[in-house]
Write a structure and sequence with these properties.
two-stranded antiparallel sheet, 4 strands, two-stranded antiparallel ribbon, endonuclease activity, about 130 residues, DUF222, HNH, nucleic acid binding, REP13E12 repeat protein
Length: about 130
Amino acid sequence: MRDLIRMAAHAHHYLAIFNDNGRPLYLGRSKRITSPEQRLVLHARDRGCTHPGCHVPGYLRQVHHITDWAHDGPTDIDNLTFACAPHHHLLNHGWTTRKRKDGTTEWIPPPQLSTITAKEFGAVPVAPLL
């Protein structure tokens, strides 16, 4: 394993481990705060804030639980996404998020803003690094 990490270090700045189906490993609901391993996978997958049109890089972001921890949301990689501080704050003002079937995060405006379409809103998928 040490040799594998040494070889990968020259090509990548991080190493993510996946299961047989190509999905990131799940780390469970044992704690609310994400592990360093989960943050590495999030950085590789999301690269930065997932709010459409936002370009805040991964190292300047917060981790958001799609299903909130307080509502029994797990700290599993499929329930996590990156959000910069201003966009994370929107979630306290009626915005919600959900995971699409393709694994990307959809940001849903509150009802008073719901007439904005995804195209107008700038929902452009970002290609993952993985």
